[in-house]
Every structure is written in structure tokens, then in C-alpha cells.
User: Which sequence fits this backbone?
């Protein structure tokens, strides 16, 4: 890719896209391919595909701390980011520096804001799980009255799911389950021997629930189109968050950015921190963005006919809250007053594990980058007495490796024992839906600023009784399932909020929601501001509810759909 | 600086591998640069010379040399020492130092000699008691030994010899096979 980087420009672009992660990448691809000269604005540094994956292919013994991060560095500069499972010495350069980019929370109400801070954003380190949502999800708010009704349904997104899936490449198997529509699939990863045995038992005992293989954005069998883009087969290294030079998982760098650049209509401004969206009250239009140069602190402006915010849920919300004017004193497009409210994450950190007897002559080869998955079964037909909505269970089976310091013994026999894989273990862990609640909110801190002078985000988010009850059921049910499958020594776990605060599931959503009524929502059914017609928000901020599935695939479909709409409206002169 | 150099080293070895995968050849200049980068910088640690030596002896008892190198040969004790300094919290450091001191104190009380000065059979007998948390050791000592074992396994199995000679090392598996029969010579995957 010839890097179309710019520092400043006097031209009026057709579109500006703020952010370069999963949604920013999709927005620039779709807008450029539809003929719009588009500027992508990224607050972090440039990261080039392959050459900037400095942690990739690095053996542990060549690293100063064998892959662990120095305690002082982690403590001083990555106090929140270090809580993320993917944070280590191979990946730490892809995580936000907490010292430079602080935020505040009320005393006793922690929130873990995990961020990327580079071109590609979190698309470089995401978990790659990819699931369609269904009308069980899009209809949830209307059914139980929490949150506002989604202004779209599955039928509005179905073709857009297909559109993005063919480009991304989703590995999975057709299952024909109503709660989890099938995607356009590349071949699924295999179950190992123990998982296959567990699946057989589970499917028989718990029908219509079913254990399926986790669907993920990996090229198990690249198409001609993928190969032409320079992407190759997944090698089952499962070190994805270091970056993948094979381009085998979807990231901005491997997939959407080269497609956008190939049009010749893409420009990229990196190290450009968006301070606010520029607004002209006379025309009631967004006219561009004001940016702070991350390195020089210089303030610049970029101008465009359309502005897309794809800066992550809380990133986009922070920019909107900071874009004030006489017409919009509490944030651009916030006549409804809902901006910053209805923050959601997912419920992780509760489940069960145990030991599986037998299968001593079975092993596996390679590190599968996904795992078995039990789609939602709670509150599909019958209503659970304790909580609304539902959850999936994900997990799988593996054999103990060398990490057996807790086993008795030492010496030659001990070493010989570790040379062979140990017992099989099987675990299941919940991924649950959080209700949208007005009280879970972000605002700009009245006095605290970061080193670039941006007001810090103040995040106030807690679990309600519904979330607490659901997490208990996730752990109980996972344990019951394991026991009924014959798993031994089953141990339940349900992490307290200090160990798994809201935010740590890294599925923030909802703080600039879509809706049917401009009085109670920010965006219409096309992710277009009710108030300012050429302003779009297409990341997780726009979600009305969180569903139980991983949300990234839905972010992509919604972004592609909104981009097509914006391009069409622009051509019709309606923006 | 140390970290940066090591990262560059790591990146270089990664580049060699990627070049190999892509069928590319490295130039003489590139090889010379790689050789120059191969010098091991001095590594700082937490332990006194005495404590480091004791850690080495204990580590070798946990993972001895067999048909593959043991903990001492791969410098597991030096890795533990460095990890304690760089990656452990203060309570973890203090717990480790106290645990080491207990091993010597108990050895001295039982035998009149420090642990390292004992013949191997006496050391092994004491270690069985330590591993089981039985007299003259206690449950807290046992907890320390489990931690030391975890540190030793980490240092050994993330070393080059531990990963590639003792275990099966497959950085680029090429795909996932769910049904892979365990044969007589199959070893635990290092990663």
C-alpha cells in the first residue's frame, strides 16, 4: 500500500472518518469505494501491516522478561491496560498509555477502559469472535421496555452482514439456529476429541441448545479475493494480538485499509487527536474536525461535507461531548439529552471448569484461535424468574502443559511427567447481556484534563441486580452442565467487581444511541444524527442494546450500511 | 535501552523466521548485523550471590539435567533472579527471599549445615519434606516451594533448550488438528 499520509490539507474532503479501528476501517472502505474522497483521522501513530508488528514471531527466550511486562512500567503506565488478557510484552505497544490518557471514575465504582492508540485501533488486538445478532436481540428493548426500541430489525442488516462477511472471511459452520443466524462461512475449526465427545452428550441432553464451534474472523480457506488482497491462511499460531503478517485475521491493516487505499481516494492523518467536530449553525451542518497534533500540540482543522465518528464508543462520545456551541451546549446533536447515557458492556468473568477423565491417548496440534460456544438458551422460550435477557457460554477442552508447579514432586520423574501432556480440563464461561440504563453514563470531567488539554472522560457505570443475578446463573449453569457431562472436580468461579469491573469485557456500547424518536435518541435508523444531518456515528456508541453476542460483526454491518446511505444522500444533495 | 535492544533482537529473529517462511535469503550484511546483535547484555537481578546460588541448586533439583539440559544449564536461576527484580511486586519479592532464608535456616537447624553444603541425598530428603509441607517444614514453606517450582518451570520451559529440546516447539503450526493421537515420542507442546 502506498501510504497516503497527510499532515494538513486545505481541501474540503467529501468525508472525514474519525478513528481507524474496526468501524473506521469499514467506513473509509465503503465511502472510498462509493467515490468519496475520504480522510481518516487517527489519534495514534501509524502502524504498517507486517513491518510494524514488532512482537510477532518473537520467541520468549529472546525477550528481556520472557514475554512478561516489567512491573514498574505496567504499574506506572498501563495500570488499566494490564488487566486485559491480551496485554503482554509482545503486544503492549498496541495498548493505550494510561498515564498519558487518564480518565476518572467515582470512588468505589471502577471501570476498565481498554484502548488501542494507533492506526488500526483495537482491530489489531481484538478477539475476532464474529456473530450475527437476531430479532431476539433487535426486539429485546421493545419486548421488555428497557432502553429504546431499535429503529432497525434483522431484515435491515441481513444483506449487510453478508456484504461484510464475504470481505472479512468468517470461519464457522452452518447451524440453522433461530437465536444465531448463520453467516457466509469459510470452513469451521475442528473440535478436539474431548470437545467432540462433550458436544455429543450436550446436544443430546440439552436440546434445543447446542454446542457449536466459535465463529471467528480467520481465513481457514481464503477465497481468490482474499488472496488477491495479500491475505493468507490461518496458521493456528493463536498469537493474533501481536499482529499477523499472513493477514489471516481481519484487521484494518489486513483488510479494509488496503481496499480503501486501492481506490486512490483515501488520505490518512495520524497523530491527530480530534478535539471536536466543527459545526456551522447557519447551515446546521458539521463542517469538519478540529485536531490537536499529538506530537507538537499544534491545533489544525480538516474540512469535509460529511463527518463519521468511528472513534470507539467512548472515544466518539468524548468528542461529541466536547463539541459544544450555542445551539448544542451539552454536545453536538444532543438535543435529546441522551448523549453519554445508557453505557453497556458485556458480563464476563463467571463460569466453571473441571477435569475430564480418560482420553489419555488423545492430543491436538496447533493453537486454535477460537473455541466451542453454546449460543443463548436462557429466556428464549421460557422466562427465568431472576433476570431478563441472556448469555452464551464459551469454553473448551485442553490438556495441561508444563504449567504444573502446583503438582507434587521434583526431579527426574517430575521432569519426565511434564514432558507428557497432563490431564484434560474442560471449562465454560459466560458472556452475558447488560441492560441499557440511563444511570450508567459518561460525562466530561469539569476540571481534569489530559496532557493535550482534552477534558477527561468521567465514567460512572455499575452492574444492576439483573446483571448480578445473571452472572450467578452463568456460573451455576456452567457448573451444572459440566457435572451432567461427567466432568470431575468442577469449580465454579464468579469474579467480584474488583477483578472484573465493567469495561473489562471491552464491549462498550450505547452512549449515542439510535432510536425512532429524536426526543429520546441521538441517531436515526441510518446512524445519522437526528439534529445534524451530515453527522454519523457508527461505532458501538450507536447501539440501543448490547445483545449477548460479541458485537464487532454488527458494528461492521451497521457501518457499511450507514456509509452506503451517506454516500447516496450526498450524491442526491441531501446532506 | 536494554529493553529496546532486546526487542530489536527479538524482531531480528522474527525477521529471519519470516524470511525463511517466505523463501527469502538474508544478505551477508544482514547476517553480520545479526551476529553483532547477539551479545547478551548483563542482566540485573534481585538476589545476593549466595541466594542466587541457592536458587540455582534448588532449581536443578526441580528440573535436573537428563538427556536434555537441566535448570542450571539454561540459567533458570538467573532468569528467576531477573524476573523477581523486573516483574514481581514487593510482597512477592519479600516472600521469595523469606522462603529461601527458611530453607537454609531449617537445614542449619536440622543438620548444622546450610542447604547447599549438604550431600545430595540429604538435600533430596529435605526437599521431600518441603514439597509435602511436613516436618521440619510447614504449609507456608510448602507454599513457597510451589511458587519456586512455578518460577523454575517458567524459566526453564520458556528457555530455548526447555522449549525446543525438552518439549515440542511449534511456532507456526500451519493449522489446527483436533484429533492428534498421542504416541510414545509425543511431547507436551511448549506453547
Assistant:
Amino acid at each position: 500500500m502506498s501510504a497516503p499520509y497527510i499532515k494538513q490539507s486545505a481541501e474540503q474532503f467529501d468525508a472525514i472518518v474519525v478513528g481507524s479501528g474496526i468501524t473506521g476501517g469499514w467506513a473509509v472502505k465503503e465511502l472510498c469505494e462509493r467515490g468519496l474522497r475520504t480522510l481518516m483521522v487517527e489519534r495514534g501513530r501509524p502502524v504498517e501491516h507486517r513491518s510494524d508488528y514488532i512482537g510477532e514471531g518473537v520467541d520468549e527466550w529472546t525477550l528481556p522478561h520472557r514475554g512478561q511486562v516489567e512491573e514498574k512500567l505496567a504499574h506506572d503506565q498501563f495500570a488499566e491496560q494490564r488487566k486485559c488478557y491480551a496485554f503482554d510484552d509482545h503486544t503492549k505497544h498496541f495498548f493505550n498509555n494510561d498515564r498519558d490518557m487518564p480518565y476518572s471514575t467515582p470512588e468505589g465504582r471502577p471501570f476498565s477502559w481498554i484502548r488501542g492508540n494507533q492506526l488500526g485501533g483495537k482491530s489489531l488486538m481484538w478477539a475476532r469472535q464474529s456473530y450475527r445478532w437476531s430479532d431476539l436481540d433487535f426486539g429485546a428493548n421493545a419486548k421488555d421496555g428497557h432502553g429504546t426500541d431499535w429503529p432497525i430489525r434483522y431484515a435491515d442488516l441481513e444483506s449487510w452482514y453478508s456484504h461484510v462477511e464475504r470481505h472479512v472471511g468468517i470461519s464457522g459452520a452452518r447451524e440453522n439456529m433461530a437465536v444465531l443466524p448463520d453467516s457466509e462461512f469459510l470452513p469451521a475449526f475442528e473440535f478436539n476429541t474431548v470437545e467432540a465427545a462433550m458436544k455429543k452428550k450436550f446436544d443430546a441432553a440439552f436440546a434445543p441448545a447446542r454446542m457449536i464451534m466459535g465463529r471467528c474472523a480467520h481465513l481457514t480457506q481464503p477465497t481468490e479475493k482474499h488472496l488477491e488482497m495479500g491475505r493468507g491462511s490461518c496458521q493456528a499460531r493463536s498469537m493474533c494480538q501481536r499482529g499477523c503478517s499472513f493477514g489471516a485475521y481481519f484487521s484494518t491493516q489486513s483488510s479494509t485499509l488496503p481496499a480503501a487505499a486501492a481506490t486512490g481516494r483515501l488520505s490518512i492523518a495520524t497523530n491527530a487527536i480530534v478535539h471536536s467536530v466543527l459545526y456551522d449553525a447557519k447551515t446546521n451542518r458539521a463542517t469538519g474536525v478540529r485536531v490537536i497534533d499529538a506530537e507538537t500540540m499544534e491545533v489544525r482543522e480538516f474540512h469535509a461535507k460529511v463527518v463519521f465518528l468511528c472513534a470507539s464508543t467512548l472515544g466518539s462520545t468524548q468528542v461529541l461531548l466536547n463539541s459544544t456551541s450555542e445551539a448544542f451546549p451539552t454536545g453536538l446533536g444532543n438535543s435529546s439529552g441522551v448523549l453519554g447515557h445508557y453505557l453497556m458492556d458485556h458480563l464476563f468473568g463467571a463460569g466453571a471448569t473441571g477435569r475430564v477423565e480418560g482420553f489419555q491417548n488423545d492430543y491436538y496440534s496447533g493453537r486454535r484461535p477460537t473455541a466451542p460456544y453454546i449460543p443463548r438458551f436462557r429466556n428464549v422460550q421460557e422466562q427465568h424468574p431472576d433476570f431478563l435477557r441472556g448469555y452464551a457460554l464459551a469454553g473448551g477442552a485442553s490438556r495441561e502443559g508444563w504449567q504444573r508447579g502446583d503438582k507434587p514432586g521434583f526431579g527426574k520423574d517430575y521432569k519426565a511427567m511434564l514432558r507428557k501432556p497432563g490431564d484434560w480440563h474442560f471449562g465454560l464461561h459466560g458472556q452475558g447481556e447488560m441492560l441499557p440504563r440511563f444511570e450508567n453514563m459518561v460525562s466530561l470531567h469539569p476540571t481534569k484534563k489530559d496532557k493535550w488539554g482534552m477534558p477527561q472522560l468521567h465514567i460512572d457505570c455499575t452492574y444492576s441486580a439483573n446483571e448480578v443475578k445473571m452472572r450467578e446463573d452463568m456460573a451455576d449453569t456452567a457448573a451444572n452442565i459440566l457435572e451432567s457431562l461427567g466432568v470431575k472436580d468442577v469449580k465454579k468461579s464468579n469474579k467480584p467487581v474488583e477483578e472484573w469491573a465493567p469495561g473489562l469485557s471491552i464491549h462498550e456500547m450505547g452512549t449515542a444511541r439510535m432510536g425512532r424518536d429524536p426526543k429520546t435518541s441521538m441517531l436515526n435508523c441510518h446512524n445519522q444524527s437526528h439534529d445534524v444531518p451530515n453527522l454519523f456515528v457508527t461505532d458501538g456508541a450507536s447501539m440501543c442494546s448490547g445483545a449477548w453476542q460479541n458485537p464487532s460483526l454488527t458494528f461492521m454491518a451497521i457501518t457499511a450500511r450507514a456509509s452506503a446511505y451517506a454516500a447516496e444522500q450526498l450524491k442526491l444533495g441531501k446532506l | 535501552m536494554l529493553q529496546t535492544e532486546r526487542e530489536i533482537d527479538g524482531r531480528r529473529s522474527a525477521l529471519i523466521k519470516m524470511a525463511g517462511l517466505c523463501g527469502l535469503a538474508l544478505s551477508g550484511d544482514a547476517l553480520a548485523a545479526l551476529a553483532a546483535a547477539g551479545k547478551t547484555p548483563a542482566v540485573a537481578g534481585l538476589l545476593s550471590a549466595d541466594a542466587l546460588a541457592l536458587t540455582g541448586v534448588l532449581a536443578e533439583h526441580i528440573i535436573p539435567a537428563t538427556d536434555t539440559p537441566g535448570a542450571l544449564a539454561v540459567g533458570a536461576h538467573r532468569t528467576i533472579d531477573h524476573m523477581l527484580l523486573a516483574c514481581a511486586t514487593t510482597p512477592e519479592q519479600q516472600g521469595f527471599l523469606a522462603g529461601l532464608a527458611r530453607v537454609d535456616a531449617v537445614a542449619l537447624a536440622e543438620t548444622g549445615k546450610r542447604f547447599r553444603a549438604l550431600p545430595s541425598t540429604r538435600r533430596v530428603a529435605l526437599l521431600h519434606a518441603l514439597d509435602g509441607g511436613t516436618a521440619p517444614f510447614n504449609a507456608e514453606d510448602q507454599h513457597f516451594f510451589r511458587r519456586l517450582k512455578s518460577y523454575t518451570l517458567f524459566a526453564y520451559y520458556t528457555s530455548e533448550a526447555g522449549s525446543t529440546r525438552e518439549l515440542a516447539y511449534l511456532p507456526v503450526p500451519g493449522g489446527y488438528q483436533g484429533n492428534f493421537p498421542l504416541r510414545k515420542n509425543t511431547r507436551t507442546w511448549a506453547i
Observations:
- The two ends of chain B are 28 Å apart (CA to CA).
- Residues 49-166 of chain B form one domain.
